[in-house]
TrEMBL record:
This is Polymer-forming protein. InterPro entries: BacA/B (IPR007607). Pfam families: Bactofilin (PF04519). PANTHER family: HYPOTHETICAL CYTOSOLIC PROTEIN, POLYMER-FORMING CYTOSKELETAL PROTEIN. Belongs to the bactofilin family.
Length: 142
């Protein structure tokens, strides 16, 4: 009855990725994307989408991002070291390793995903940054 589940708890989406960063690729610098992006390599720098666009950023199991991610939807199966701002939805698959604050509209987390940081629902990135700064200031006083 409670055996190991072999399928993902998160429903698969029918995303089309216009930009792919392969396993052997490394990109350094800020990326501004107008269409959905899949990262299987490494990105060092922020990933941002144009305002009011419905861009999905997916980090594959071998993918790594060191920087903040700003997108409509964010799916993580790899590593992220930075804050995530997903205006619609964020998904963390069981192999996800995230170190940073997460601001989201809705969330899905599989058993086994590792998230270290604040998880804040439904507020804009300015308010999320203010909240995380305040919490860190209180923690530093201890």
């Amino acid at each position: 009855m409670f055996g190991k589940r072999k399928t993902s708890l998160l429903l698969p989406t029918n995303e089309r990725f216009d930009t792919l960063i392969g396993k052997s690729s490394e990109i350094y610098g800020r990326m501004v994307v107008g269409d959905s992006l899949r990262v299987d390599g490494k990105v060092v720098g922020n990933i941002e989408c144009e305002d009011n666009s419905k861009v999905t950023v997916a980090i594959g199991e071998s993918g790594e991002v060191v920087g903040d991610i700003f997108a409509y939807r964010v799916m993580v199966a790899g590593k992220v070291e930075g804050n995530i701002y997903a205006t619609e939805r964020v998904e963390f698959h069981q192999t996800a390793q995230v170190r940073g604050d997460v601001t989201y509209g809705s969330i899905g987390i599989e058993h086994g995903a590792k998230v270290v940081g604040l998880v804040i629902q439904g507020i804009d990135k300015k308010t999320a940054n203010q909240a995380s700064d305040l919490i860190r200031a209180v923690q530093d006083r201890r």
